[in-house]
Amino acid sequence: MSSDLPAFRYHPDPLASGAIRESAETCVCCNRAMEWICTATFYTAQEVSGRFCPWCIADGSAAEQFAGEFMDSYGLDGVSEEILHEVTRRTPGFHAWQDPHWLVHCHDAAAFIGEVGYSELAAHPEALDQLRQDLRMDGWRDPAQLEQFLTHLGEGATAMLFRCTTCGTHLTYADAS
Questions:
Q1: Contact 65, 27 (CB under 8 A)
Q2: Belongs to which family (predicted)?
Q3: 118-140 per-position pLDDT tens digit
Q4: Where does residue 13 rank: exposed (0-12), middle (13-18), buried (19+ CB within 10 A)?
Q5: What angle do CA 21, 22, 26 make, to 5 degrees?
Q6: Which of 81, 75, 104 is nearest to 162 (CA)?
Q7: Whether the Cβ atoms of residue 96 and residue 89 lie closer than 8 Å to each other
Q8: Which of 30, 157, 158, 162 sits CB 3.0–4.6 Å from 171 for a disulfide?
Q9: What number of other Cβ atoms are within 10 A of residue 26's Cβ?
Q10: CA-to-CA distance for 88 and 98, rounded, in angstroms?
Q11: Strands 20-22 and 36-38, sheet pairing
Q12: Are 103 and 85 in contact (CB under 8 A)?
């Protein structure tokens, strides 16, 4: 990540994930063209006609000025109010086909790494095993169908990869259209 960009503890490389990109757009919050713009969603009841620069996300001014959030609090059970606000109001979210949600491990929000397919996920066997278990709990009873689904992640379905900020364990959930 560019050293010019603010650091996001829970989204350490928003350039790689596509949540932030280079742009000549003017930030709708600070009204400055900062060379970078957030492409991820923003949830608010207000009308917002533009995007936010990473600095207005990092300092919380975008969420405060427009009374909104970059991420829903779903999945953030058991974290402190401070962590909840940092993830929902001061961290760029990410795009997903289903409602995106943040994962928690060791009583802290995990860091979002990015959207991955099977080959990237296979490099993190603990995350792949966790996903396998979650899918079984969701009703995937046929082992062959489950493995077929997993090995074709990246082709119509994907996995959202996270890393625990405390112990480094990788976590994931499946996202499909």
A1: no
A2: Belongs to the UPF0167 family.
A3: 999 999 999 999 999 999 999 99
A4: middle
A5: 105
A6: 104
A7: no
A8: 162
A9: 15
A10: 17
A11: antiparallel
A12: no
Between CA 75 and CA 171 the distance in angstroms is: 13
**Spatial distance between the Cα atoms of 156 and 117, rounded to a whole number of angstroms:** 10
CA distance 141 to 60: 44
- Percent of residues in the chain assigned helix, strand, coil, to nearest 5: 30, 20, 50
Give the amino acid at 57: I
Query: Which DSSP symbol is given to 26?
Result: B
State the DSSP code for 7. Answer: P
CA distance 95 to 34: 22
Question: What does the block give as tokens for 17?
Answer: 């994930």
